[in-house]
Amino acid sequence: MNNKKIKVAMVTNHFGITGIGTVMMNYCKALDKKKYDLTILAGQPISEKYEKECLENGIHLVALPSRHGNPKGHYIALWKALRAGHYDIVHDHGSSSMMAIELTIAKLAGVKNRIAHSHNSTCPNMKVHKLLNPYFRTVYTKALACGQLAGNWLFGENNFEVLPNGFHTDDFVFSKKNRDVIRNELGMENQLIIGHIGRINEQKNQEYLLDVFKEVAAIRDDAILLIVGTGPDEEKIKSRVKEHPYRDRIILYGETDSPTALYSAMDIFVFPSRYEGLPVVLLEAQISGLPCVVSDKITREVDLNDLIWKSIDDTPKQWAKAILSVEYRSEKERIVYRENHLEAIQNYDIAQSVKQLDKIYTDLIKM
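^ thats the sequence. predicted structure below, dont judge the formating
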């Protein structure tokens, strides 16, 4: 192979602080810039944090009109960018057969290698997804998925390669210092902090979490609910909190660039999602040594050893019972937990998974 860089365009509908956005940035920052010329083509809104990181890491960022607000403008701008860029590979990130549109545009723009990357195990618009799926499966040249569940649902059983959502696993080691800083900041030195980190939307099911906390708080006077994140249902959740009988014990933290310290501050992590691909936050929480009570709609691949599984069809009281029966871990036990699961954790480390992505890209170019 000559010294010419491999030109890769990663495509996403929007580039706010989301799981997909984080995964894309992790890979783009980790890939060798001497070998790759990387561009992210993203619809608005675009996070200022990601803009800054692209600038600092030599990653081109092309802002497209909002797909939701201006679909025609979005796809025309995508077409123009792909035509002008002369890319070797287009790597499209999404969660449904709607990716067929971007991949068709890439094909028409002359991009030979087209990757469809599944990040979820269902989608909001099932009718369109099912209608497009037969065609969708003809327009990509490589299928990737964050996990087995996400791949099976979009591509059919085993017709894809699993690429774990790589991240810097060492960043999430439990820290007594971080725990004390956050708890002092919140004025919660001795409380039982039940934590949740995720985009505030229907998928993550924060409304149900508020119902669960009502049951927990009625039994434990020291229980605090800490919800971290922003999203389309933020105002709805704020309204629900205002009406909540234990509203004084609920903290809507908002967005954070650094969740590491927040995991250390928590005592238990609760994640009642309606559906998921492979949620990185659950891996981060486990690495921090947090006991986790989670929805059984989530892929079992994310379980390092002892997640507590609950059905979202169960009553909030049943979830509360599970949360209150958890054996909370001491600071030492949280550190030991991570040490005992290092081998499984390494599967998700960016240093390992970026090698897999590099091989995928290199093999495509050779074909």
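The two ends are 12 Å apart (CA to CA).
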